[in-house]
From TrEMBL:
PANTHER family the record matches: MITOCHONDRIAL CALCIUM UNIPORTER REGULATOR 1 (PTHR14360:SF11), PROTEIN FMP32, MITOCHONDRIAL (PTHR14360)
GO biological process assignments: calcium import into the mitochondrion; positive regulation of mitochondrial calcium ion concentration
Name recorded for this polypeptide: MCUR1 regulator
Gene Ontology cellular component annotations, sorted alphabetically: mitochondrial inner membrane
Pfam families: CCDC90-like
Stretches that traverse the bilayer: 167-186
Annotated localization: Mitochondrion membrane
Similarity comment text for this entry: Belongs to the CCDC90 family.
InterPro entries in UniProt: CCDC90-like
Organism: Dasyornis broadbenti (rufous bristle-bird)
Record flagged with keyword Oxidoreductase: no
Length: 187
């Protein structure tokens, strides 16, 4: 081992300050032993360049394996996400068709009800023509009833429309959330 100070100069310095030659040599010898012990402890904790390169190669091989696993996982998850997205699209189209059929059915029922109500009002008017006061009251009540039913039907149609829009928006946001989740996993 190399010493980073001149031991003879230290012995001479100690002798000049009143130590005997034997005392000076013992002190310098003790300092050298302490330094060697400290250096041994430091060298135990140190890694050689070869060991460092081996560890680096092991880490790089682990990183390469993880990259391969990530690529495989990304491809499989992406294809699964794509197939799930296609299923959701088909379900949305089916639901849209069902909703449109339901709306058409409700409209037809409403038209039929309105036509029946109108024909009933006309019959009442023709049958009770001579009772003008009763006719006005019946007509007013019927008009109110028709207006109320029309308003109720319009409200119901708007409610169905809003429910359909909420469901479609929820499905779209769910798809987007799943897509963003996978996107976040890739990054």
């Amino acid at each position: 081992r190399r010493l980073y100070f001149d031991t003879h100069a230290l012995v001479c310095l100690l002798e000049e300050n009143g130590f005997t030659t034997q005392q000076s040599e013992v002190i310098v010898s003790a300092l050298v032993k302490i330094m060697n012990t400290n250096l041994d402890m430091v060298y135990k904790d140190m890694v050689t360049k070869v060991q460092q390169e081996i560890a680096l190669q092991q880490v790089m091989s682990h990183i390469g394996g993880v990259k391969k696993d990530m690529i495989i996982l990304e491809k499989s998850e992406f294809s699964a996400l794509r197939s799930e997205n296609e299923k959701i699209k088909l379900e949305l189209q089916q639901i849209k068709k069902q909703v449109m059929d339901e709306i058409t059915k409700v409209r037809a029922d409403n038209k039929l009800n309105l036509n029946l109500e109108k024909s009933r009002v006309k019959e009442l008017v023709s049958f009770h023509y001579f009772l003008h006061a009763q006719q006005d009251r019946a007509l007013t009540q019927t008009d109110r009833k028709i207006d109320t039913e029309v308003a109720d039907l319009k409200t119901m149609l708007e409610s169905h429309k809003l429910d359909n829009i909420k469901y479609l928006a929820g499905s779209i946001f769910t798809c987007l959330t799943v897509a963003l989740g996978f996107y976040r996993l890739w990054i």
